[in-house]
Amino acid sequence: MNLYGIEVASRLLLGTARYPSPAILADAVRASGTGIVTVSLRREAGPQRGGQAFWAMIRDLGVRVLPNTAGCHSVKEAVTTAHMAREVFDTPWVKLEVIGDADTLQPDVFGLVEAAAILCADGFEVFPYTTEDLSVAERLVEAGCRILMPWGAPIGTGKGLNNVLGLRTLRAHFPEVPLIVDAGIGLPSHAAAAMELGYDGILLNTAVARAGDPIAMAGAMATAIEAGRAAFLAGPMEPRDMASPSTPMIGQAVLG
Amino acid sequence: MNVIVNGSPQELCATTLAQALDELGYGAATVASAVNGRFVRAVSRDITALADGDAIEIVAPMQGG
């Protein structure tokens, strides 16, 4: 998968939040085989300087980071956070989130397009967290986004793919743009289903972090994503309404 | 000088953002900073003067999804 000119082997992008411990996070990242993890910026809490230790651990893992603008509800907040992230993480990549609704964490797509245009013009390589809406996707591409990240379902819900038709339509409409399902994945089967639609990758966090065994789930997700991709490339059969015998009828003995 | 650091009132001797970060113990830390909602690049901290009542935000790498 090629993301803004960078070839990455794994099609899984993994979030780093909500793990039981830093050690489990590190092991889950290794088990997933991912080459990209998402990170954020927050006020340094307490005298322990936990953020510095976290950053040292991520650097030791040898993966690329994709900073997010999580929690930003305005264009100004998101753009300012992106600038801070570019300086701290030394990357032009930014997972752009402009949240429109506190309950669903649905993107504010109007603010998203506006922020994306500002950031792309300023040299950022934007990974927009968006809906599956085609018109919004068009605007994001016009703004300079070379990747689209539609949600599968609201962040942290684990509901899977709420709008398969919409996601399939988006794939058909943008055959050349890398498409990554971001948010809503709860099970490996959800991830595989998205990959079978022809999606290029999956970004997930909670499904691994909150699993009973995050390390095992990280491996399961990686396997499912590989399987879904292989199935897409293999060309799945067309479903049909009526049964069709798989065993040939020719040559069947007359016994009745 | 009385400023607001990450939402909490602080009394600092510093007169620039760079001095404030040093005084607060962030001298060598990986952080980004803003004053009154405007991002200040690391290279500009030395020349960013602080005034009474300024709101300073200091953020560091954290877990994220």
What keywords describe this structure?
heterodimer; A: 256 residues; alpha/beta; 5-stranded parallel β-sheet; 3-stranded parallel β-sheet; B: 65 residues; mainly beta; 5-stranded mixed β-sheet; 1 helix
Short structural description:
The complex is a heterodimer of chains A (256) and B (65). Chain A is an alpha/beta fold.
Protein architecture, described:
The complex is a heterodimer of chains A (256) and B (65). Chain A is α/β, with parallel strands linked by helices. Chain A contains 9 helices and 10 strands. In chain A, the strands form 3 sheets. A 5-stranded parallel β-sheet of chain A has the order 5-4-3-10-9. In chain A, α1 runs parallel beside α9, α3 crosses α4 and α4 packs parallel to α5. Chain B has 65 residues and is mainly beta. Chain B is built from 1 helix and 5 strands, in the order ββαβββ. A 5-stranded mixed β-sheet of chain B has the order 2-1-5-3-4, with no helix packed on it. In chain B, a hairpin with a 2-residue loop joins β1 and β2. Chain B is globular, with a radius of gyration of 11 Å. Chain B starts with a strand and ends with a strand. The mean pLDDT of chain B is 96. β4 of chain A pairs antiparallel with β5 of chain B, so a sheet runs across the interface.
